[in-house]
Amino acid sequence: MADKLIIFDTTLRDGEQSPGASMNKDEKLRIARQLERLKVDVIEAGFAASSNGDFEAVQSIANAIKDSTVCSLSRANDRDISRAAEALKGANRARIHTFIATSALHMEKKLRMSPDQVFEQAKLAVRFARNLVDDVEFSPEDGYRSDIDFLCRVLEAVINEGATTINVPDTVGYAVPELYGNFIKNLRERIPNADKAIWSVHCHNDLGMAVANSLAGVKIGGARQVECTINGLGERAGNCSLEEVVMALKTRRDYFGLELGIDTKHILPVSRMVSQITGFVVQPNKAVVGANAFAHASGIHQDGVLKARDTYEIMRAEDVGWTANKIVMGKLSGRNAFKQRLLELGVQMESEGDINNAFAKFKELADRKSEIFDEDILALVGDESVTHEKEQYGFVSLSQHSETGERPQASIVFTVNGKEVKSSSDGNGPVDASLKAIEAQVKSGAEMVLYSVNAISGSTESQGEVTVRLQNSGRVVNGIGADPDIVVASAKAYLSALNKLQSKADRVAAQG
Ligand code: KIV
Ligand code: ZN
Fold this sequence. Notes:
The protein is 39% helix and 20% strand. By secondary structure, it is an alpha/beta fold.
């Protein structure tokens, strides 16, 4: 039996620290459910002590997720650790992940603590956490740039206190594969009680080597847990990408020889969901989940693949969730067929009422668009108005006029707490005019920091999916809207972002 490798997903914690990627509780819960379907071993659901919003998100994920371990990050102090334990109370399997920086630079300049103080605090934190849960992970932040003798001393001590996983972060993405692999190997060889813990790798992608470094940590260093995020989401250049590291380990099982629990056919749906919720578009040539990852444009390649797929393909597209871009449903499809398709796409709706709302939206769309693809269905269920009937703002209708040489005009009808309001404006283009018309009534004063349009299924007949990112009083939220008319999609996305700005449950600040 091959060794098992633990996949620890931190999209909802480290991924969320990416500027502009903050998610609210419901969005986090939707992603967590997809991660459970993907069968990730551990879901790092957030940083419970960082805000009430994050506490509630960790709590609701802990209550909802049954198969994966649910983890909360916490600094190495009693208050953070107690908050984490409290948020995790409902979990089937709970993990507390506590950390403190150990590099000379971080200890001196950031923590203003001596190495001895850090040593004591790390020990006390793990001892305290172990009194609350059985599963405790310890991370020496900036571990890879730490003095190895000091690191050995700290890690030996925290294992003695009961840490069950030791994670060695390359916090700033400075490592290169061979050196990082050997660093983990050295630590494991030098620390006398190293075999009492599972060793984990956590690599950032500043030099584009997060996946390679993580794989070296596994192969050379003997780590048996990889920390990663969907689409490589994360601060700066991001984290090790889950889909890449998982498919490398699976495709090259001959070399790595490790067992993984991941159900890879759920990779693409969760990648799309994360991209849709955060507004971080996946680049077309991104390995595994990019639109071109399995596309063959050159004649020679196409010919080869048609004769024998493995001439140019090392993985099967369907194994990671790609389906042929076929028409899956139409106007005459019934509610049961729709519900079945949602299940096949790995979408679980909260209630029969949500399914009814989604089905009504699907029927509306099918009246306007003859061919409905899987992507359309995924966009439709990602539209907040399907699952949130009582939002403050709701889209009703829009008309706009634009003509070469004339200033575009838009008139929009939308609801404010259920009451219809009408507003008109001009603008630089029809989208600008529509959003100005909304803002003329709402007066949110929010600053738009991102506007992006994406064709859901790749042709001009496709729905446009629009992401609007708004910032107001230190809060950043993303709104998403989909419609065959991109001006309407833009208005829906703007209203969705305004709804989130109103929501108290939204996260205020990422890890401080
Ligand atoms: O990159 C890092 O050091 C972290 C730790 C908190 C584990 O994310
Ligand atoms: Zn990190």
